[in-house]
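In the current project phase, the collection of sequences with tokenised folds has grown. One resulting record follows, to show the layout:
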Amino acid sequence: MFTPAVIRRTLALALPLLLSLPLGARETMSVAWSHWPPFSEIDADGTLGGLDVTLTRQILQDAGFHPVFRNLPWARALHLMKHQQLDVAMGALKTPEREQFARFSAPYRRASFVLLSQGAPQAGGDRWQGITKLSDLCGQTGLRLGKLRGTRPLPVSAQCPALGQASEYNSDDRLLTLLLARRLDGVIMEWQHARHRLIQLGANGFVQCQVLLHQQPVSLMFAKETISEGALARIDAAIAALPSPDPALATPHCRLDASQPSTAPAI
């Protein structure tokens, strides 16, 4: 009969061997990705890159898996995962609904959702000047706000009419176009994605962060039949060994901070 000490020594010897296996001997995992820079995108040299892709590739390989990336819209990826036809989804939030068909790794980064406005005041004055707390924002009736279709930007949206009544659009690029054209007073977006697109458009200096709405940890989501508890422990260990986040990914500076990480909503 093996004692716990013997089992631990055996595992300690086996893990380095597993990680040294050639790719052909490693278990393959299918990973969904879609174009969402700077997290997942085709680089200038034609290869798939981005922050989430790079981190996911490193985490899975360090845990002894070979990732194979599939270009899939998020809704399609969730559908396939529910039916155990996809192994991994990146940048996922852990929710009770998803836990019915998926397992989650430890968080590997944090996402910040913000309310952005035009940086320069309009001819009629700066309509954001009198908004000094969240209740001031919630009480606004004339703000034209936009958000990505299907997202819930703040846990208190139902009690915050200005946020709850934001118009929905099908793409973040459309939101930024309308904001820069002053057809919207504010847009609700994930900060790093918004910053990346604004830099590409040469418009980073024309937009101001008004409110940090919430921050949320994101994880790798696995189809339940794909991952064992032992494999998930290896993946969490690989996440724990990641280097410190790049300072460029720090929380944005906004005029107001309404973040409530303990009650972050799902997207």
